[in-house]
Amino acid sequence: MNSAHPDTLRANAKLAAELDFADRRDFEDAERGFIATLPEAHIDADAGGVSWTMKSYGFLSGDAPETVNPSLWRMSQLNAVHGLFEVVERVYQVRGFSLANVTFIEGDTGVIVVDPLQFTEHARGAIQLYRKHRGDRPVVAVIYTHSHRDHYGGVRGVISEADVDRGVPVIAPFGFTEESFSESILAGVPMRRRALFQFGWSLEPGPMAHVDSGLGKAVGRGGDGFIAPTWLIKQPVERHSIDGVEIAFHLTPGTEAPANMNMHYPGLGVLNLAETACHTMHNLCPLRGAKTRDALAWARYLDEALDAFVPQAEAMIVQHHWPVWGTDRIREYVGGQRDLYRYLHDQTLRLMSHGLTPKEIADQLMMPTELSRKWFARGYYGAVAHNVAAVYAHYLGPYDGNPANLNPLPPQAAAERYVQYMGGSDAVLRRAREDYDAGNFRWIVEVLNHVVFAEPTNRAARDLAADAMEQLGYQAESATWRNSYLLAARELRSTSSASTPRGVSISPDVVAVLPLGSFLEYLGIRVDGTKAQAFSARFDWRLTDGAKVDAQRLTLSNGALNHLPGSHGDAADAIVETTREQLSKLSAGRSALLAGIDAGDIRITGNKALFRRFVELLDEFDPMFNVVEP
Ligand SMILES: [Zn+2]
Questions:
Q1: What percent of the chain has pLDDT over 90?
Q2: Rounded to the nearest whole angstrom, what is the distance from the C-alpha of residue 398 to the centroid of ligand 1?
Q3: DSSP state of 210
Q4: Ligand 1 midpoint to CA 275 (Å)
């Protein structure tokens, strides 16, 4: 790792001069209502090791070091505040125990838990702290604001199936389960690899490495659970009383998650904007990848909230970051957040209408000066360049319309020719070193990417590319950009990217509620099309789940696996029978399925050999596939 380049010092100093660091209201708000915390927010993992800790972030004090963007440094300090806080009477939050916040709302007989964090241990630690200071209130309802794991994965830390059986409702927006599966299962393998870059999981905390994740400190680790909702909110606005607490649920689909809702608690004077108005410019498509989000809908829902709920709100909470108090300040904040997304949307479309493509728009689009000086509008998690690309893709897809980009050579083949045309790798490196000295880091990572793809073992090219990536990381205001650049630098400097545990299977808790059809979709993306194209088969698959049977008929033809409910009848080549308990083991892929056949966990009648041949056609994935090299 290198220290900061003079150009990095200049860039960071320039930003520091532009922003109002004397404005300390966010720090006051982040600490307001503090009741208690755990020492260094340290939580052990049930499986051994550490689930969560702020201990390793003790370096986040004082002024920004040269290797961290000063605005990101400020956010890193705010995200290091942890503990149990009172928002208003009856509304409490535990912040800084996980990437997200959990909110506790006290009803007449117990407590409503909003968003039980990412891991069991985080949620358990939070509710224990809450109960220690607010009494041993039973959980009377759990509410998931949206379909992202940092908001529901810790549910088993606050309730169990037995609580659900005895009537504790689990409330979520319409489409919650389908959308959470769509992200975590179908696109799970590439998304997890890309998320390593976004969150910088494997980077050590430190001023030259991990300082923050933009929405919170880090991801942490621990037990991962899923309890399906028992009550879905389906109308645009639904009003219910839960344990004596009036709640107006405001559906906001297509915003930060496909299944999403905000809430207003009129009797408490609190507006909960979930993750649609955090203290950052959010992502219209995160770096890990996602279905692009709808900036227009996002702005409109915030406008609706501003119109309908803000006039009666004395406090506004979000499920990341800290609250805002006072109706006037909330109005300014929500109005600013609304304008942020509306501006990004409208201005991107305006520039698209001039024929500009995403990189050109990102280079031209300036956020409004006054708005961009507000701390809540800075890009700690999202960034203008990526949000522009997301708006473009939302309307026009990934192709920029220039036929020169219609069918380019794949990266490695193109790289070999680029390097050859540029006079060979030594010539490129000579010029790149001059550009490094001049601080042209964006250009160097682009040009050296060609050298690394043409000559993956070229140590000098990898090291210089890593040097430039580091400087970009040190300058980045967005934590997700910083993490991406710094992990890329590390992977370029090492000879192997293998640094995290392998194994791709679905969490047993998810499999426990997964419809058979969804499991078969997951199987479908594992079919190796090239090998399977010469192979036709019809199978019936029966999943028994207690007294319930989910029966699907599978058709494999032209390398594609389709399925419909029901049975092929006499036309079935084989009938496959499994129980729900077995599915989780089988979800690990080909070898698990083959072992399942051999062990008799999968019962097959009919042409057993044919089904076995089908299983042999399934692909295996390397979750640590290469990213910064071919
Ligand atoms: Zn979140």
A1: 88
A2: 26
A3: B
A4: 6
* Of residues 310, 292, 314, the one with CA closest to residue 302: 310
Q: Which of helix, strand or coil describes residue 324? A: strand
Pairing of strands 111-114, 83-88: unpaired
| 3-class SS letters over 362-394 | HHHCCCCHHHHCCHHHCCCCCCHHHHHHHHHHH
Average pLDDT of the chain?
Answer: 95
- The pTM (predicted TM-score) of the whole model is 0.95
Please tell me the distance between residue 113's alpha carbon and the centre of ligand 1 in angstroms.
Answer: 15
- Ligand 1 centroid–CA 318 distance in Å is 10
CA 152 to ligand 1 centroid distance, Å? 10
Q: Each residue of 502-536: pLDDT tens digit? A: 445 677 778 778 889 988 998 999 999 999 999 99
How would DSSP label each residue in 571-602?
A: G-SEEEEEEHHHHHHHTT-HHHHHHHHHHTSS
Length of the chain in residues, anyone? 630
Q: Which residues contact 567 (CB under 8 A, 6 or more apart)?
A: 540, 551, 553
Helix (H, G, I), strand (E, B) or coil at 240: strand
Alpha carbon of 585 to ligand 1 centroid (Å):
29
Check if the beta carbon of residue 439 is closer than 8 Å to that of residue 5: yes
User: 112 phi and psi, to 5 degrees?
Assistant: -95, 130
Task: Give kind and range of the element (H or E) at residue 489.
Answer: helix 479-493
**How far are the Cα atoms of 115, 264, 359 from residue 312, in angstroms, in the given order?**
23, 9, 42
